[in-house]
């Protein structure tokens, strides 16, 4: 009888221990490490502090959305501050160490890399370039413009080139095609602080001078407003700003040689129909800060997680990159020491 009683006690103890183990397991997460092994970790540690980001106005809506999701769902005590000074202006803050991340709508320049090195920061060792998504450079016109809804790539380039049609750069629509109105084209675009300006000037115009009559602005919202109120206006900026203002603007379909192509998430990509006007957008991470500040590293991991750029890019007018690209950045950050 005594032996039977002890057996029952032992069984109850074992069942209780197993139940406790199961409850403990539900409070852990499994995280893959680079060797393909797994390890149990406790729930995400509560972090606090600040993550400072500045740079591209084009990338701003995407990064701001990622930051909002992170602060709401992951780390409410971490303040992620996202600015939109422009790609070039952002690098001027990032190089001397004023920011943790620098968003850019164009690749970092050689002279900027040299300036980083002067400050003791080397690419890949102290700074990580993160490709975030694809963007399509979009040419927009007023909704009352019914004649220039489709243009060839060369027509767009030539109309923006200084001296191509008129010495004083007062270009008429009829200069582009004779059957178009004999009215002056009003050129608009982002100013020199923005990577979009540099991408357009260097990659689209081939570093040739832009028309001197172009009205260049700091704020993209100003450009949207100006074009929406002027029937003869034309401007260029990232697809995301058109997508969020398509009720006010028209995107020009561009003929790259095989018929007019409208920019959208099915055509924007390095090997898709809108490829000639497609570009990568980036963020640059100070790895020294990521090593020293857990909140910076944690946010960086979130940006390249399945919940970050991969999920939110399309919601902000960007085409996401292959999942393997973000997974590679995850591995780099997981192995950061």
Give the SSE layout.
Elements: H1 2-25, E1 28-32, E2 38-42, E3 49-55, H2 60-73, E4 78-82, H3 87-94, E5 101-104, H4 110-118, E6 127-142, E7 150-152, H5 153-160, H6 173-176, E8 186-190, H7 195-204, E9 215-217, H8 220-228, E10 233-238, H9 239-243, E11 249-251, E12 253-255, E13 260-261, E14 278-286, H10 287-292, H11 294-303, H12 309-312, E15 319-320, H13 323-334
Parallel strand pairs: 3-4, 3-5, 7-12, 8-9, 8-10
Antiparallel strand pairs: 1-2, 5-14, 6-10, 6-11, 6-14, 6-15, 12-13
Strand content: 15-25%
The secondary structure category is: alpha/beta
Question: Which stretches are low in confidence, meaning pLDDT under 50 for 5 or more residues running?
Answer: 1-42
Would you count the extended β strands for me?
Answer: 15
Briefly, what CATH class of the largest domain? Alpha Beta
Q: Termini, distance in Å?
A: 60 Å
Which overall shape is indicated by the principal axes computed on the Cα atoms?
Answer: elongated
Output the helix-strand order.
Answer: HEEEHEHEHEEHHEHEHEHEEEEHHHEH
What does this structure look like?
It is a single chain. The protein has helices spanning 2-25, 60-73, 87-94, 110-118, 153-160, 173-176, 195-204, 220-228, 239-243, 287-292, 294-303, 309-312, 323-334, and strands spanning 28-32, 38-42, 49-55, 78-82, 101-104, 127-142, 150-152, 186-190, 215-217, 233-238, 249-251, 253-255, 260-261, 278-286, 319-320. It has 337 residues and is of the alpha/beta class. The chain folds into 2 domains: 49-133 and 281-334, D-Maltodextrin-Binding Protein, domain 2 (3-Layer(aba) Sandwich); 136-278, Periplasmic binding protein-like II (D-Maltodextrin-Binding Protein, domain 2, 3-Layer(aba) Sandwich). Strands 3, 4, 5, 6, 8, 9, 10, 11, 14 and 15 form a 10-stranded mixed beta sheet that branches. It is elongated. Mean pLDDT is 89; it is low at 1-42.
